[in-house]
Amino acid sequence: MRKFFEDHKQLIDRAAFFALITFVVWLFFTQLFTFLAPFFFGLLIALIMEPLIRVMVNRFKWKRWLAACLCLIIFIAVMSSLGVWIISTLARQIATFVSVENIEEIAARINESAAVWISRIEEILPEGWNLPDVQEVLLPAATTLFGGDFLDQAMNFTAAVPNFLIGFILALVSAYFFMADRKLIFETVRNTLPPWLVNHMRQTRVGLSRAVGGYFRAQYILMTMVGIISIIGLLILRSPHALLLGLLLAALDFLPVLGPALIMVPWGLISLMTGDIRMAIGLAIIYGIITITRQVLQPKILGDQMGAHPLASLMSIFIGFRVFGLLGLIIGPSLLMIFIAVRERGLEEPTG
Are 226 and 260 spatial neighbours (Cβ–Cβ below 8 Å)? Predict the structure, then answer.
């Protein structure tokens, strides 16, 4: 047994390291993420702003804490400006699209369609059978909706707002500390971890950075494809907001599972209910093309950008979804990135 371990020490080290990282990722996202989310996003902000901080520190000789303050201000200003621009643009477009006349027209079409369907159903029913009055059905439903669960959900949402604000502030504060005291924090972590684990992490850092970059390049390519398909399809359907909606659908494509369905499914149902069959069929075709294209090309694109076989990418997506749920669509490829980095980077013998 000892001889077997000595002969396969490097392979066992790699397997143990990958198993440990997999367990840590599973533990973090399934058990600890709720408690550590602000600090996770703070670290993410710090990593995004690190190249700019290095320029300020190395080229302009600024103090790191001063560079961290300025970078945090820049991040807040950029994100705030982007958010205001997106919200104001959407508000203007929605105000144009959903005017009072449109709402009245949609309501009239829905009522007309409902009356036609009800009359057809009543013709099929046996003699003496009548559908209940709409008000008799809607009144108890509205009472139930607004009386109990709806109010509870509204209270929960109201209570969640302060928690969100606290989490947002914590993320910004932790981002500053991650930027200002980066060396101290990472040095403390390295001194806390076992030497063999530190060595493994150091050896896989380059390969992991390359794989992470490949993953985000793949997502950018997929989002671009979704945007192009959406814009072309909406232009064919003569939508007056094809460009805006196409860009929005491309941005939503980053969300696991839901993505463009958040807009296209309700839009298609409303079009169907209001009698706009052409628009409903067109949206269904566009969504079908987007879904098929993404599902077919995603493993190939991920594999090419990350340096993995498309089958491995497909397996990582499926297994991640089965184990972690929706987050697994991101966690699965992330673990594949780590595995690629561990495999390709010849890990050295532990130093201690």
Answer: yes
CA distance 135 to 120: 19
Q: Which amino acid, 313?
A: S
What is the rounded end-to-end Cα distance, in angstroms, of the chain?
A: 22
Choose among 239, 323, 334, 229: nearest CA to 285.
229
CA distances from 33 to 71, 298, 323 (A): 26, 27, 16
**Could you state, in chain order, the average pLDDT of each consecutive group of 10 residues for the chain (352 residues)?**
68 79 82 88 89 92 93 91 71 58 59 65 62 51 50 59 83 93 89 82 69 76 91 89 83 73 83 80 92 84 76 81 76 79 58 44
CA-based nearest residue to 38, from 191, 163, 188: 163
Q: How far apart are CA 226 and CA 291, in angstroms?
A: 9
**Phi and psi at residue 61, to the nearest 5°:** 60, 35
Q: What share of the chain is helix, strand, coil (3-state, %, to 5)?
A: 85, 0, 15
Specify the pLDDT at position 350: 45
Using alpha carbons, list the distances in angstroms from residue 163 to 20, 45, 154, 159, 241: 32, 20, 15, 7, 35
- Cα–Cα distance, 299 to 209 (Å, whole number): 20
**Closest listed residue to residue 290, CA positions, set 279, 300, 298:** 298
Residue 213 structure tokens: 């970059």
Cα–Cα distance for residue pair 321/327, rounded to 1 Å = 7
DSSP H helix total and E strand total for the chain: 14, 0
pTM of the model: 0.65
